[in-house]
Automatic annotation (TrEMBL):
Protein name: VOC domain-containing protein
Superkingdom of the organism of origin: Bacteria
PROSITE patterns per the UniProt record, alphabetical: VOC (PS51819)
Classification via CDD domains: VOC_like
Organism annotation: Rubritalea squalenifaciens DSM 18772
Domain VOC, residue spans: 4-126
Amino acid sequence: MKPRMSMITLGVSDLEASIKFYEDGLGFPRMESPPSVAFFTLNGTWLGLYGREALAEDAQVSSAGSGFAGFALAHNVTSEEEVHEVLDLARAAGAVIVKEAQKVFWGGYSGYFKDPDGYLWEVAHNPFFWVGPEDES
C-alpha cells in the first residue's frame, strides 16, 4: 500500500455552525457539495464535515464519545508570527484556545485550539520541517 491521506472527515454536531467556522472564520475554500456534507480543499488533501450521527452510522460504530479523541490535526506554518496569526484567526472565528503559542520542547513553536466540536488543531512552526510546495521560491 502506498501511504496517503486524501481526506479527513470530521463528524460534527451542527453542520451549519461548523461550515461557518471553517469557511467564514478560517477562510477554508469550500467545494460544491450536497446539503448534508461540506468539503473544503486543503493543500494536498480535503476536509469533509458530516453529521456526527450520520458518520458513525456509515462506519457502523456508536456516535457516543467525549473528552480527548486521541488525535490532533496539525496546521504547519512558516514562522512563529504566523502561528500567532492563525491562532488569532481561530479565536475570532469562535475557537477555544487551549494552549497559547509558545516555544516547545522539540525546538519549534506551537499552540492549540478546539473547533466548535472540540477537535484539537495544533498550529505549529517547525524550523526542521518543510511545510509544502507553496513555500518554494
